[in-house]
Design brief:
alpha+beta, two-stranded antiparallel ribbon, 2 helices
């Protein structure tokens, strides 16, 4: 059995008091449905997904070009031939 958190009301909102060892950093968390009916998963907020690469390119724009010079230039991936799926 896991540790128990206490539910309480804060104005019109419901809140939960989280045990110390499960406390989160930051100011926001994310709620997702759990695998079983009625379960809720509480997790650290993930990076926003906009359905595109907008967030990625925005974060990339914040990295100075000099930090990316030569990035992966010496990477040798070798030659890969596709296997024949009918062989």
């Amino acid at each position: 059995m896991g540790e128990i958190g206490k539910l309480f009301r804060d104005g019109d909102s419901q809140a939960v008091r989280i045990p110390d060892r499960f406390r989160f950093e930051g100011t926001e968390v994310e709620f997702r449905p759990g695998p079983n009916p009625g379960e809720v998963i509480l997790a650290p907020k993930r990076m926003e997904r906009t359905g595109s690469f907008d967030a990625f390119f925005k974060s990339r724009a914040e990295i100075p070009d000099w930090e990316l010079e030569g990035f992966l230039e010496d990477r040798d991936q070798g030659v890969h031939e596709r296997d024949d799926p009918l062989a």
